[in-house]
Specification:
CATH architecture of the largest domain: 2-Layer Sandwich
Low-confidence stretches: 1-19
Helix content: 40-55%
Largest sheet: 6 strands, mixed
Number of strands: 8
Structural class: alpha+beta
Radius of gyration: 23 Å
CATH class of the largest domain: Alpha Beta
Number of domains: 3
Number of helices: 10
Shape: globular
Strand content: 5-15%
CATH topology of the largest domain: TolA/TonB C-terminal domain
Distance between the termini: 46 Å
Order of helices and strands: HHHHHHHHEEEHEEHEEE
């Protein structure tokens, strides 16, 4: 009864109503078992997601709807898109059926070994550049990923986990500790801080410990990558505040209107352990990332 009611409403809706699609509407269609209609709405939303989080949810619900319609190959592609966007994502047993969880487990089991190796290689490259504070954060993420139950028993993972933890500890130990303040006579007031709270520091500033990455997920490109797009390069410029949140973000030059919006929105959700002076005072920090479409 619910399926017929939703289907008739959808078929009868005027074409102008398609512009009013929302993720909430698509979810309601899915929950009413109107899987085809939900998929149509999700595919329209997919071309113009409003944020990185919405793009992830669209891929997730497309996978659910495709599984319900027994379109296995398409469902696996949607699951792969979801997992690549967030390697730690796994739907809860209270939210989906055992069949859906099993499908996600199968795809994650296939993707995670290579993804973990790639994450380890990136962290090791950061370590080899002697960016120890950043490397410590990246190796911590790798260690968390390597403890995922889907990787249990996979050949080589136990050894890689030992290496990741070892390099994380080495990187942490290599970060210069905050210097001790000079001794002063008891009667003298402590020296005034020279930290300028309005200043934005960068890697060229002596004595500044750079921020450590806690969450920095680059969103996938939405749609087909043309030869022209594959040649484009851009620089994402961030100002990371004293709290570790991104205070300001800009992209130069622009890449693609759809992707520019996704990337800038995603950057506002990234989190870092803030940069600090040697005495431990958090400071604003300018960070630059090169973005390449592949």
């Amino acid at each position: 009864m619910n399926f017929a009611f939703v289907s008739l409403l959808t078929l009868a809706a005027p074409r102008a109503a398609f512009a009013q699609d929302t993720l909430a509407t698509a979810k309601r269609l899915y929950e009413a078992a109107a899987y085809e209609e939900a998929l149509v709405a999700l595919d329209r939303l997919r071309s113009r997601p409003s944020s990185f989080a919405e793009a992830q949810a669209i891929a997730q619900y497309r996978a659910y709807a495709l599984l319900a319609l027994s379109r296995q190959a398409e469902a696996e592609a949607a699951i792969e898109e979801t997992v690549k966007a967030d390697l730690f994502f796994m739907p809860s047993a209270t939210d989906v059926s055992p069949r859906v969880r099993a499908a996600f487990q199968n795809v994650r089991r296939r993707l995670l070994p290579a993804s973990a190796q790639a994450e380890y290689a990136r962290a090791k490259a950061t370590f080899d550049r002697k960016e120890f504070a950043a490397a410590a954060g990246e190796f911590e993420r790798v260690a968390r990923l390597l403890h995922d139950p889907q990787l249990e028993g996979v050949t080589g993972i136990a050894d890689l986990r030992v290496l990741a933890v070892g390099f994380r500890d080495l990187a942490r130990a290599a970060v210069p500790p905050p210097s001790l303040p000079p001794e002063v006579e008891a009667s003298e007031p402590p020296p005034a801080s020279v930290h300028d709270p309005s200043k934005i520091y960068d890697l060229n500033e002596p004595g500044i410990i750079p921020p450590v990455t806690e969450r920095q997920e680059i969103p996938p490109f939405p749609g087909r990558i043309t030869e022209d797009l594959s040649r484009r390069r851009a620089v994402l410029e961030l100002v990371i505040g004293e709290s570790g949140r991104v205070d300001k973000v800009s992209l130069r030059p622009r890449i693609d209107p759809r992707y520019d919006a996704l990337l800038l929105e995603a950057a506002t959700t990234w989190r870092y352990t803030p940069a600090r002076t040697k005495d431990g005072t958090p400071v604003k920090f300018a960070k630059r990332l090169q973005i390449t479409i592949r």
